[in-house]
Prior knowledge:
InterPro entries: SpdB
Protein name: Mobile element transfer
Shape: elongated
Strand order of the largest sheet: 1-2-3-4
Order of helices and strands: EEEEH
Number of domains: 1
Helix content: 10-25%
Structural class: alpha+beta
Bound molecules: zinc ion
Amino acid sequence: MPTNRRFRNVVRIGPVQVGTYYDGRGREKHTAACTAPRCGFSTDYDSRPAAELAARTHRCPVR
Ligand SMILES: [Zn+2]
């Protein structure tokens, strides 16, 4: 998960963290980011439920 953003309401779902932040234009964005070292999964979403769904359905390629 990038450290140059200030995430709020960070939750962990399996290996994936979901956090909400404001982008440079003051809009809410929601990021789902996998914490597995070599996975690299990290995607922004416009809605929190979409980000949490992505976290729940993430199938980590790294074991
Ligand atoms: Zn992963």
